[in-house]
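Researcher: Sequence recovery benchmark, item below. Answer with residues only.
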């Protein structure tokens, strides 16, 4: 019973999924120029400081401003500077794409809220011949990865081939992304001629496939129930079927997890391959980052935020469930303009269901995730 109510809460909460940028659009009104901050570390440092460009991961979304500047101390660039004891500036912002806004095939998701692109960030930042390290994280917004997640988790639409991350769309998006990334790297190298340029390859925030003997991640109750509701079933009928045919339901959840696992692995593999190829061809260093074993389904061991929902369920006057489900870590600083929050109240003859929650910055790195990214960037320095 409790498993079902928890699942249903997250299903309703699926309406909330989809905001926040690497994976989402940014917002208007921020100064497009970063201020200089200084790390406090005492380690041996390079001759100059760090400059960071990129999307919401680079900005440290969820742990500070959706824009990395003037200072988001939890973003990986700040953590690097602290370890090395050097100054840094973080120009990153949520929703940034590699593609320039005047490109004929500029992704609609990138400019929807007018947020700066990476090229805008580079143009706004002062050139610094003394900078020793420049970091860049970009690409997820160029391929509309966020839209892929919305279609699966919010709509229960498993037609992966037909969504933006399907093979035809992904191929075209990556083909447009590669020259834009090359242009960004070249512009960075021109403005920071003595710096080592590091470009992040994306982590996969989702768990691997499961076998028939393994329990699926409860996160995947969301698209399983959403698919049933999309096909015309009422929530009561879905719940009744869950109880009467529980084993069949769990098998369907396993199938959904495996579909999402295969799709996310393929998409991130292809994107990272493009990043690696372009970085290598243009004198930059590709930085592989992995969250294996620490996915959104790993509770307190997760390195990325996961959706949360508080649920209360009453049946025939009896309170059967009252609990917060989903991510074990609350995102401390979500941007409400980017988050998809919900408050649902359903009253029927059989009882009452209430839920409130949201995307909780999923799938952005939490503090531990940002520390991991920092460590990977430092390890990749030549």
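Model:
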């Amino acid at each position: 019973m409790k498993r079902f109510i928890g699942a249903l809460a997250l299903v309703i909460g699926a309406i909330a999924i989809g905001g926040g940028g690497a994976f989402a659009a940014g917002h208007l009104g921020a100064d497009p120029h970063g201020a200089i901050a200084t790390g406090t570390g005492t380690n041996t440092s390079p001759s100059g400081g760090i400059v960071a460009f990129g999307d919401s991961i680079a900005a440290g979304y969820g742990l500070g401003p959706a824009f990395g500047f003037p200072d988001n101390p939890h973003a990986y660039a700040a953590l690097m500077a602290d370890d090395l004891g050097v100054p840094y500036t973080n120009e990153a912002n949520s929703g940034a794409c590699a593609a320039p806004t005047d490109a004929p095939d500029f992704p609609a998701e990138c400019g929807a809220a007018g947020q700066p692109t990476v090229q805008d960030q580079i143009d706004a930042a002062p050139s610094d011949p003394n900078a020793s390290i420049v970091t860049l994280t970009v690409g997820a917004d160029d391929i509309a990865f966020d839209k892929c997640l919305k279609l699966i988790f919010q709509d229960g639409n498993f037609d992966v081939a037909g969504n933006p991350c399907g093979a035809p769309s992904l191929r075209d998006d990556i083909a447009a992304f590669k020259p834009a990334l090359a242009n960004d790297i070249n512009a960075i190298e021109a403005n920071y001629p003595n710096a080592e340029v590091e470009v992040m390859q994306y982590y996969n925030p989702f768990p691997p496939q499961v076998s028939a003997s393994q329990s699926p991640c409860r996160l995947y109750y969301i698209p399983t129930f959403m698919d049933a509701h999309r096909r015309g079933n009422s929530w009561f009928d879905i719940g009744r079927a869950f109880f009467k045919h529980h084993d069949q339901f769990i098998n369907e959840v396993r199938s959904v997890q495996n579909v999402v696992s295969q799709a996310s692995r393929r998409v991130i593999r292809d994107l990272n391959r493009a990043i690696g190829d372009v970085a290598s061809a243009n004198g930059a260093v590709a930085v592989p980052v992995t969250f294996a074993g620490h996915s959104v389904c790993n509770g307190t061991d997760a390195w990325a935020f996961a959706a949360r929902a508080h649920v209360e369920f009453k049946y025939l006057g009896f309170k059967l469930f009252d609990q917060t489900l989903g991510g074990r870590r609350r995102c401390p600083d979500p941007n409400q303009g980017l988050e998809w929050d919900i408050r649902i109240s359903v009253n029927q003859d059989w009882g009452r269901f209430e839920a409130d929650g949201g995307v909780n910055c999923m799938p952005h790195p939490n503090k531990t995730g940002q520390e991991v990214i920092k460590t990977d960037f430092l390890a990749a320095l030549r």
